[in-house]
From TrEMBL:
<dbReference type="InterPro" id="IPR050204">
    <property type="entry name" value="AraC_XylS_family_regulators"/>
</dbReference>
<feature type="domain" description="HTH araC/xylS-type">
    <location>
        <begin position="276"/>
        <end position="374"/>
    </location>
</feature>
<keyword id="KW-0805">Transcription regulation</keyword>
<dbReference type="InterPro" id="IPR046335">
    <property type="entry name" value="LacI/GalR-like_sensor"/>
</dbReference>
<dbReference type="InterPro" id="IPR018060">
    <property type="entry name" value="HTH_AraC"/>
</dbReference>
<keyword id="KW-0238">DNA-binding</keyword>
<dbReference type="Pfam" id="PF13377">
    <property type="entry name" value="Peripla_BP_3"/>
</dbReference>
<protein>
    <submittedName>
        <fullName>Helix-turn-helix domain-containing protein</fullName>
    </submittedName>
</protein>
<dbReference type="GO" id="GO:0043565">
    <property type="term" value="F:sequence-specific DNA binding"/>
</dbReference>
<dbReference type="InterPro" id="IPR028082">
    <property type="entry name" value="Peripla_BP_I"/>
</dbReference>
<dbReference type="Pfam" id="PF12833">
    <property type="entry name" value="HTH_18"/>
</dbReference>
<dbReference type="GO" id="GO:0003700">
    <property type="term" value="F:DNA-binding transcription factor activity"/>
</dbReference>
<keyword id="KW-0804">Transcription</keyword>
<dbReference type="InterPro" id="IPR009057">
    <property type="entry name" value="Homeodomain-like_sf"/>
</dbReference>
Amino acid sequence: MRQILCAMMSPNDQIVREIHRFGRDHDWQVELCGGRIPPGWSGDGVLTDCLPLEELKKIRNFERTPVVSHTLTPGGNVRTVAGDTRRIAEMIADYFLDRGFRNFAAIDARDWNRQGCIHGIDPVVSLREELERRGFRLEVCHWKEDLHPEELADYGSVLARLAEFFSEMPRPLALFIPNGRHLTVAYRVIHQLGIRVPEEFAVLCNTDEPFFTENASIPTTHISGEPLKLGRMSAELLERMMNAETVPEAPVWVPPASIVSNRSTDVLAISNPKLAAAVDFFLGNFMNFISVEDAAAAAGLSPSMLVRLFRKHLRKSPSEFLRGLRFNRIRHFLDKSDLPLPEIARRTGYGSAMSLSIAFRREYGIAPGEYRRTRRRKNSDLPPPDQW
């Protein structure tokens, strides 16, 4: 039996459950610890989220112990499996821009780029880069930019810093929170300042843990589909390393599946009332068998005028907007449910499984069934390293 240390500073239930599930199938004994390595620990492999290298080096025979991290730069005995923050940033930018937002902000405890982490690991940095590419600015507030992963900022100072930051932000504002554990303090300050959610601040969180999003004072829109696959792929990679297989040093990036909307973003920031009416129609009816003509009629416009408004204000066509809503829901169903394809087609505005499959393959270059299998791939199904 292999002895595996699961060292998580911020344990995610879905990630840890997936690691345990994999371990049961592969004769692992999984030991859990937090942000400190047990003195003198030795074993066959280590899985960690964001423990710094200096802490991991306390492991006996560290250089000969395979380590899979979510944040460290890969090299030597360390490999990295991390969330695809660039894809997350693209999805967030699309989500808010499609709803008319032009003011953006994010908050986090620290600047992860100062923690010796691999470039591209910080979703705030990725979102800033993505918005700059599209001609927009992201305002960022850190509790303390050089805050050590094991260090806690003074709570009173955090409240004061957030209050000052939020008070200075233009409205309506799209607010991104990259860590579910920061939702409570963010909402505490938002409520103290009398800021209305979602009318003045629309909030989106990078977590797939219902404990944070559903139990927040305002049910919160969130990124979905990353943790289970992150846990599974981390365990699969560690198994390969312990089997002495040659694995590439390049990081393995795990994309999310979808954005799950909730009350915290149930608002539009579109000044043109006709365009707002059309967008609202799409948001409320995309799961039905509707067309661009139906949205134009609901807004009191001709289809050609609706196309012009969409391209002027949202930089895409109405049909592209509608497809984006449907594909987001389709990816969520494929990732999170066992619904058969005909039922998914019925729930996302497609007339048949065939028409959905054709549209999905055209968009992603892969059939829906294959997409579902890759999201749930087991270790035995992994491609060889040179295809990662």
